[in-house]
Amino acid sequence: MSNRPMLIRSVAILVGVSVFGYTLFQTAIQFSELQGTTSSPNQTEIVVAQTPQERMNLDRLEELDFNAWNNRNWTLFRELHTPDVFVVDFSGNTTKGIDQHVEWAEAAVTLSPELKVSAHPIKIAAGNWTATTGTLPGNATMLTLAYWEDGRIAEEYLFSN
Question: Could you give the number of structural domains in the chain?
Fold first, then answer.
């Protein structure tokens, strides 16, 4: 994890988190619009992964959203996170540990049963970090920034519009 500060700065620069005041989410949406990416089923995907490990992390995030989250498969959800996962949710609240994260997830889908991810238009991996946008009901968009350890999410930061 000694590369973390440099990698975080690189990701921040990549998506425009800078003195211009853009948030990670706003920049991802702007990038999506510039590239012609839309929320339609026929959308163009933007995928950046240079190594097999980066590709695997992106594939596992797809498994997390499309199989675990969308199907409410909490066993798989647990398997894709480390036992001590640290998560910052859409509201800035934090959970520490998989039990708290699953409680948060179950509460979220109880409040909004229709909350499912339909697409990942932008997928970027850099070392142990991934950043993906997700299309939600009502054409809302989310962004997940995740740090991976041994094929599991150890840190997760969630943003939405």
Answer: 1
